[in-house]
Amino acid sequence: MIVWLNGAAGAGKCAVAGELVELLPGSTVFDPSLVGSQLRDLLPRERAAEVVDCRDLAAWRRLLVETAAVLLSEVPGPLVTPMTLLRQEHRDEIFGALASRRVPVRHFLLDAEETILRARLAARAAPGTRPEDDERARGEMAAYRAARAWLATDAHTVDTTELTPRRTAEQIAKAVHDGAGTCDIVQTPEPTAETVAAGVLLFDDQDRVLLVDPTYKPGWEFPGGVVEAGEPPARAGVREVAEELGLRLAEEPRLLVVDWEPPAPPAYGGLRLLFDGGRLTPDVVDGLLLPGAELRGWRFVGEEEAAGLLPPVRLARLRWALRAREWGRPLNLEAGVPVGSGPAG
Question: What is the spatial distance between Cα 101 and Cα 179, in angstroms, rounded to a whole number?
Fold first, then answer.
């Protein structure tokens, strides 16, 4: 198990972590910033100079997860992890990857009044602090204010305004014992080879397409998932739509695109199929249900809005799927680009 201590700079995460390991038997402090410093040392000098925040490095996020999983095999108790995560997509990627390794996470937010946070930062600032350091602290505070809404719904909040680190740790230890802070994330096993995945495009009465927001990986996605062994892909899409949205399609959907996704380590790639699930009536839309451990939201979007939500590979797949739907015939893609016979004139 990981007890993740989140919060703005000045919230006291490291001090609380030091106290908490004395209260949780067998626990160990795991500071992901050490992974970041080592990664900086390994990067070429020019690349390291470009990195403002290691949290923005996909390599850091992967190394964090792998290091935590390996460390848990060497120590008897939970890892206490003091690390600020203010971008929800980073939270999804890291916590989702931990869930895929069967590592449960307890998420705690150490909160305090902003005036208190600023006073703590000022008190610990070294003499001769550079103006750019002050500017960075102000930027982090603004980022924390922006992230506060989703953090409050995702984590168990502990107000540290009038608490010492010891008293804060005591509250968290009790909350851990009571089961608070549990992140119920779907445990999707990491693939060990190429996979086949089936997605289903569902449309509203304005022909906007439905996207879902997974809790276990960053970015928006189409309803769907990995095809199980021996399962027909179209039926897999029907099954996934029922599991994710509580919607049972009356018939197997029509194929729009087959896209070969090349391997890009650590991902293995594979075949990605998109099907046309048809247009949903308003009463069906009103009845959509989301499994909280897997999806946090859904929305209908036009092609232009989808460009701001989907990563490039999924956006290309969507755009060709919409063309295939318009032309009335499926398309064969490789890495999001049509191959074989060209588009109909």
Answer: 20
> Distance of alpha carbon 1 from its chain centroid, rounded?
18
Element (H, E) at 214: strand 209-214
Question: What pairs with residue 261 in β-bridges?
Answer: 270
pLDDT at position 26 over 90: yes
pLDDT score recorded for residue 134 = 60
Residue 343 has pLDDT above 70, yes or no: no
Rounded Cα–Cα distance for residues 153 and 178 (Å)? 18
| Phi, psi of 342, rounded to the nearest 5 degrees | -75, 175
Q: Is 164 helix (H, G, I), strand (E, B) or coil?
A: coil
Distance (Å, whole) CA 36 – CA 62: 11
Is residue 154 within 8 A of residue 178, CB to CB? The reply is no
According to DSSP, residue 228 is labeled: P
Which residue from 260, 257, 261, 245 is spatially nearest to 202, judged by alpha carbons? 245
Distance (Å, whole) CA 239 – CA 213 = 18
Condensed to tens digits (0 to 9), the pLDDT of residues 75-94 reads: 998 999 999 999 999 999 99
